[in-house]
Predict the 3D structure of the following.
Amino acid sequence: MSVEMFKKHYPVVIVGGGQAGLSVSYRLKKKGIEHLVLEKRQILNSWKTQRWDSFTLVTPNWQCTLPDHPYDGNDPKGFMNRNETIDYLERFAAKVDAPVLENVAVERIWKREAGGYHVLTSKGELSCDQVVVASGGYHQPIIPRMAERLPESILQIHSNQYKNAAQLPEGAVLVVGSGQSGAQIAEDLHLEGKKVFLAVGNAPRVARKYRGKDVVEWLDDMDYYKMTVDKHPLREGVRDNTNHYVTGRDGGRDIDLRKFATEGMELFGVLENYDGACLTFRPDLKENLAFADSVYNNINTRIDKYIVEQGIDAPEESHYKPVWEPEEERDTLDLAGSGITSIVWCIGFRPDFTWLDAPVFNGRGTPVHYRGVTQAPGIYFIGLPWLNTWGSGRFSGIAEDSAYLADTIQQNVVSTTTTEVA
């Protein structure tokens, strides 16, 4: 697309060329609303560059329901791997054929006196009436400042840089964080024969299968995925929840950190500090493992209740009982003596919306919205966790979210005709 596009004023600008931004583009094209997608790198960039080699979806393939683009493979109850997921998304991108400018970073968006918004980019300036922020909420990899004090000989990478065990040096590895990425990366390294130390946080876990079906199927039957934020017991607090760890690898299975411990993985509590010789951890390993198991069993109890209420004939299954308990809370680890030569930080990301100069954030810098619609005229968000439902940050909810936003945008369209910027 030509540089002349930067001389234009657009009815809508979409910031971000991932599945969320492409979904909104698809909806707007259907409605005949002119728009432009700005992507800092390449479309679907994070899927192509920030997933490890053995990555699989943790939700079944049948939940992949982008707008008019459902999963069409032959394994709906399976879990697409990295390459299959990218192929699914690339076919969606080809179907959308969005008006996108790649390698164009948005540096600032602010209000125009004439109405609408200025959009300053790395390649020039344009303006628009409405803005859709579709860049997600995972922008800045979190690595604690204590990392600066670790020996230079220790290779440190973030989870978004991890590909496989071969990229790490010989020796043991410390994985910090036990959310979805941390648990799966620890498993990957463990299966590859690496000596793994894992700093376990308070992430919950969930069973892969229970009483004859994938737990996701049970929760879908129970209408959990239809629950909206305003109906959830935690209300907007649910947006801060850590994802449950489980895996779709090898057809799908539980991730049981206790089992890994019986096989030689060494578990600790939350990593707190490095004193120049030893890593120090909170003495909360037992507590964190117990919490994860309590969530696991609580979900299964809810499924049991549903089965009874509906009179469903399902095979009986007992609840999880720990296969390992730490004998003592170890809160220090001699770094040199442990043989650790690399660290994979798996403690998440911080959002960065500093480029958006608009009164749409709370005191923590988090967007305030209802179903992605903010109080600032013409500014919207999509692709955030629990934007409206559990599926909002996943492939299962974007179709509904993008349809709602497109309808709202259509109601607020100033003009569908591109004009020169005055």
About this structure: Residues 415-422 have pLDDT under 50 and may be disordered. The chain has nine helices and 22 strands. The two ends are 22 Å apart (CA to CA). The chain has two domains: 3-139+351-420, 141-345.
